[in-house]
Design a protein that fits this description.
Chain B: Belongs to the TmoD/XamoD family. The complex is a heterodimer. By secondary structure, chain A is mainly α. Chain A has a single domain, classed as Ribonucleotide Reductase, subunit A. Chain A has 22 helices and 4 strands. In chain A, the strands form 2 sheets. Chain A has a two-stranded antiparallel sheet. In chain A, a hairpin with a 2-residue loop joins strand 3 and strand 4. In chain B, helix 1 crosses helix 2. In chain B, the strands form 2 sheets. Chain B has a 4-stranded antiparallel β-sheet with strand order 2-3-1-5, covered by helices on one side. In chain B, strands 4-7-6 form a 3-stranded antiparallel β-sheet. Chain B is α+β, with helices and mostly antiparallel strands. Chain B is built from 2 helices and 7 strands. Classes of the chains: A mainly alpha, B alpha+beta.
């Protein structure tokens, strides 16, 4: 063995490059009594050609000993904070209990995805032929399980005080808006391993999740929610490694064979659009649900997609990869995205496991400043109208069930990119059936694989088919395990609000 | 036009030392402060040196400890024992 001599006091130990190389090269073996394609049956059929698996390298060069050491330290720090938050009644010190509703969405929509990611990475980690990607996926599988666990601890804490968090795993498979994240992830899990990594590691983790985790966790900090900041940043520190796996696997596929380029581009187009539609709910969390706000959805989109994503795709251009299809539609929608999502949830709060409200005067001033092109013209008048109706005792609830998009499963509430007064709706015929979509992006995805998306479990269709507990709203809510009158409806008048006000009164010394 | 690479770190005691080291080693870097985190942008490439961070923290720093402080990054990564480089190739 040759040892390099340097000035470093660590010269006697192996460097990380060597340690990583010993972990990922030469420990594997060539199978002798089973053909390779029977051991790794999934890495051929997607059409991706890999000539040399050893060309994949984790740029952090993380070895197992370092992995366990740092993950254990993250856990120690995290649980110290979660314990301290519980011990010191941290829930009483958030800025406002309305904020907890953003957390309810996060914990019911995202936490089950962490577990789904754990399963998926364990699966692809087993099935890659090459040791480098296999180890990176195995580490990520353990990370994702950790994220699910830390978030369940947070659910457990907030569930002691606030409504809507009592049965998240049951709700995840039934509640209408939770079918959006669930179907997104199941679409990825049921794809082949290369498409899965393009979907989740690259398009979602690298290109889009900074929008979910980074400004939202900073927002949690700004709103006094130490428990969420801590699980969020603890997860995010793993996320940086996951993002890097995403970028490296894309470059690996592109460098291995020119024939891979169009396949990868098609997946990037698809998964950019799938992920972007999923983030519509994040847009509204950022703009409407943080009492103290960090940045608007529009600003986050500009920083993380237009600038960050722009730099990334400039770098990938040398492989023949271009920006994802319909990115310009996403940018055109940034003035409207959060407002249209919030308006929809406001109308359907009677069927949701969190509360909604209309923005107050201070929040409206912020909206005007952040959305000068759209807020006063299109959304303020709508809220003024709903506010007046509520004042007359006629709070508007939409009792019709919405048309869902066959692909993203979001109600078709988005508008045309060039005309925000017209709903964007696309249709197609397939084998005698009529299908509906929210956009050209989702319609293209359907047309490429109709046999996959005709199987979609669409909550509205399922209610109409009699598969969701009954034909009335209370029956469906029972089937969701949603406590009507507590979990749902306006924040104003909710048990959450009453609890919060009693805490505030006791702090001020005026309580009972 | 040179595109920015970026790194986001937690505003913790260690994070502050690492941020100071990055700012010292990368004259073109710009630090954007947010609640609980700092996002550093730098045109084209950004380097983090073990030695500078060790000096800032007053102890021997292992670059892999960055695992505990990192929030997000943008750019191609290359890490060895003495420095972590984030760069765009284009």
């Amino acid at each position: 063995m040759t040892t390099t001599t340097t000035q470093s006091p660590r010269a006697k130990k192996l460097g990380i490059k060597e340690r990583y190389s010993y972990l990922t090269r030469g420990l594997d073996w060539e199978p002798s009594y089973q053909p390779r394609e029977k051991i790794f049956p999934y890495t051929d059929y997607e059409g991706i050609r890999i000539h040399d698996w050893d060309k994949f390298e984790d740029p952090f060069r993380l070895t197992m000993d370092a992995y366990w050491k740092f993950q254990a330290e993250k856990e120690r720090r995290l649980y110290a904070v979660i314990d301290s938050f519980a011990q010191n009644n941290g829930q009483m010190n958030v800025t406002d209990a309305r904020y907890i509703n953003a957390l309810k969405i996060f914990l019911t929509a995202v936490s089950p995805l962490e577990y789904a990611a754990h399963r998926s990475y364990a699966h692809v980690g087993r099935h890659f032929d090459g040791v480098g990607p296999r180890i990176a996926c195995q580490m990520q599988a353990i990370d994702e399980l950790r994220h699910a666990q830390t978030q369940i601890h947070t659910i457990s804490h907030f569930n002691k005080f606030f409504d809507g968090l009592h049965d998240p795993w049951h709700m995840f498979s039934r509640v209408w808006y939770l079918s959006v994240p669930k179907s997104f992830f199941e679409d990825a899990m049921s794809a082949g391993p290369f498409e899965f990594l393009t979907a989740i590691s690259f398009s979602f983790e690298y290109v889009l999740t900074s929008l979910l985790f980074v400004p939202f966790m900073s927002g949690a900090a700004y709103n006094g929610d130490m428990a969420t900041v801590t699980f969020g940043f603890s997860a995010q520190s793993d996320e940086s490694r996951h993002m890097t796996l995403g970028l490296e696997i894309i470059k690996f596929m592109l460098e291995q064979d020119e024939g891979n380029v169009p396949i990868v581009q098609k997946w990037i187009d698809k998964w950019f659009w799938r992920g972007y539609r999923l983030l519509s709910i994040v847009a509204m969390m950022m703009d409407y649900m943080l009492p103290k706000k960090i940045m608007s959805w529009k600003e986050a989109w500009e920083i993380y997609f237009e600038q960050g994503g722009g730099a990334l795709f400039t770098d990938l251009a040398r492989y023949g990869i271009r920006l994802p299809k319909y990115h310009e539609i996403a940018s055109a929608e940034k003035d409207h995205y959060s407002h249209q999502a919030w308006s929809t949830f406001y109308q359907y709060t009677h069927a949701a496991a969190f509360h909604t409200w209309l923005p107050d005067a201070g929040e409206e001033a912020w909206m005007r400043e952040k959305y000068p092109e759209s807020y006063d013209r299109l959304y303020a008048p709508r809220y003024a109208h709903w506010g007046a109706e509520a004042d007359e005792g006629k709070r508007f609830y939409n009792n019709g069930l919405p048309q869902l998009c066959q692909v993203c499963q979001v109600p078709a509430f988005f508008t045309e990119a060039n005309d925000p007064t017209r709903i964007s709706l696309r249709t197609c015929e397939h084998e005698g059936e009529h299908y509906h979509f929210c956009s050209d992006g989702c319609r293209d995805i359907f047309l490429d694989e109709p046999e996959k998306y005709v199987q979609a479990w669409l909550p509205v269709h399922q209610i109409y088919q009699g598969n969701c507990g009954g034909a009335t709203v209370p029956e469906v809510l029972d089937w969701y395990h949603l406590n009507g009158g507590a979990d749902n409806l306006d924040y104003k008048g909710s048990p959450d609000e009453a609890l919060w006000q009693s805490w505030q009164a006791s702090k001020a010394g005026t309580g009972t | 036009m040179t595109q920015n690479v970026s790194i986001t770190l937690q505003n913790t005691d260690e994070g502050r030392g690492i941020i100071a080291a990055i700012m010292a080693d990368n004259p073109d870097a710009v630090a954007n402060r947010y609640p609980a985190m700092t996002k550093i942008d730098c045109p084209g490439r950004l380097v983090m040196n073990r030695e500078t961070i060790s000096t800032e923290l007053g102890r021997d720093y292992d670059l892999q400890e960055l695992n505990l402080t990192l929030v997000c990054l943008s750019g191609n990564v290359d890490e060895d024992d003495d420095r972590l480089l984030i760069a765009w190739n284009a």
